[in-house]
Amino acid sequence: MERFCEKQRGYTLCLSYSAERISSEVERLASAISTDYEGKALLLIVVLKGAIFFAADLARLIRCPIVMDFVKISSYEGTKSTGTITITKDCEIAVAGRHVLVVEDIVDTGLTLSFLLARLHAEGPLSLKVCTLIDKKGHRKVDVIPDYAGIVCEDGFLVGYGLDLDEQYRQLPAIYEVQ
Ligand code: IMP
Predict the structure, then answer these.
(1) Is a pLDDT exceeding 80 seen at residue 82?
(2) How many helices (H) and strands (E) does the chain have?
(3) pTM greater than 0.85 (yes/no)
């Protein structure tokens, strides 16, 4: 199938997932989360910066009480993982005794997520699950399976709807593959 591609600031971007597709995935995920956590309160831990738009849209559709916190974990430079994971902003709300849902933009190798989950698990949450907008299944280096996944794909470097390439393209309303 022919895809819409355009050159933007030095890279060719080809449309992968439209704003409509993204919003229907977000609605589906929010509905599943609302059902599963009915009668419970939830701590959403949003992984900065890529998950900002996803988390903002998701949180507004979840029907149970939520509080939100943010972590920043970095392992990428350009389109390649550096393999070195660093926390540049930690959680401020105590995780112990709470139902915790980590909100990610993409699970790729799984290294970032498994690092974060191990840290959070050690703090004694009541439950610990993961919701990711995109599950890039074909790239896993460690065995992590998101509890809630929107779009499942195999490969390709994606930008838009929060996802960046060296801090560019986050604001695009749809998701594009960088050629
Ligand atoms: P992982 O540790 O390899 O699973 O990488 C997870 C993080 O890498 C994500 O939260 C993203 O911030 C970033 N990342 C992975 N793949 C992409 C991509 O295709 N576009 C933009 N960022 C990505």
Answers:
(1) no
(2) 3, 10
(3) yes
